[in-house]
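Service request form, structural biology core

Requester: graduate student, group of Dr. S.
Request type: structure prediction, single chain
Budget code: on file
Notes: please return the result as structure tokens.

Sequence provided:
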Amino acid sequence: MTSEGPFQADDFGIYYILAERAGNYSCRPAKQAKERQPHAHGVTGLRNSGNTCYMNAILQCLCSVSPLVEYFLSGKYITALRKSCGEVATAFAYLMTDMWLGDADSVSADIFRSALGSLYPAFMKRTQQDAQEFLIYVLNELHEALKKVRNPARSPGKGLPQKCCRKMVSRESSIITRLFEGQLSYGVICLKCENCTYKNEVFTVLSLPIPTEYQCSLQDCLRCFFQQDTLTWNDQLHCSFCETKQEAAVRASIAKAPKIIVFHLKRFQVQGTVKRKLRADVHYPLTNLDLTPYICPVFRKHPKYNLCAVVNHFGDLDGGHYTAFCKSSGTQTWFSFDDSRVSEIPGSAVQTSTAYLLFYSCQPFSIPVRQCRP
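Core staff response, request fulfilled:
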């Protein structure tokens, strides 16, 4: 992809260091690259159609989520498909089939892009888009096409006090909600009357602040997100007991932890006319990410998570390039995806300062089982 804005010097250097470390053969003949990187199922490049690296990186990460892929390869999606809005889901199924069962080293995602672009025209433009926003749109459209409506229910647990955080079960269920949907519970305490209330919020991507401009850990970002905040002045909240706005203390916790949790590192900041990218080196574990401190005790079923995919961003806010690192469920090795260029990388190369989205799973992945072709 051609950058729409200048690369920063540090990103430029990092990009080529990663390319060399990962065995990126972009400057070598295609035949030589093919010989050095044999094709494997689920390890397929995506051709760039003009500033579509953001899309390619996200699709590679979703392609590495075996339970999602198996749902489409097995044909289960067909019975759940809502015909009135099934174009995106059908195009996604065909693309996953090509990437997992095809013989080509790289394929085109243009049909899927066209289906999604008919709903969101911005994705049809040859301009760079934000990968995190694209992911949210994709997950939402797949959910809308495959959702089933069920009776609402609460699961507060037996014998729990009223002030314990409660998990709310969504009325709409799909493969997306079963894998990616989590729920935050916000405990709000009025600092005048000390009344405590809880508010729930569903999420599929958790956006984390980066507390430093230099170096920190993912746990630092999590602690910053889940720390207690005090709302004063113009941020005061209405207290139903005081019947007026009051200062309040707010603390978030995870009431429902998803099987696949996606962290968005908030690297892009816009303050008035000033735009900048935070280039802090955020260290994140490849295995055993512990979310225990942030999950309501009642719902701590799967507190440990392992990294399964990463979206990297090089450049600045107005231009740049996206790539992906994904762990293969077949070989249990890591691969670098730079549009149509694919190469195996060591686990030590997965930790970089360019990480933008982190995909973690609480369960190990197996190779998807195919029952019928869509």
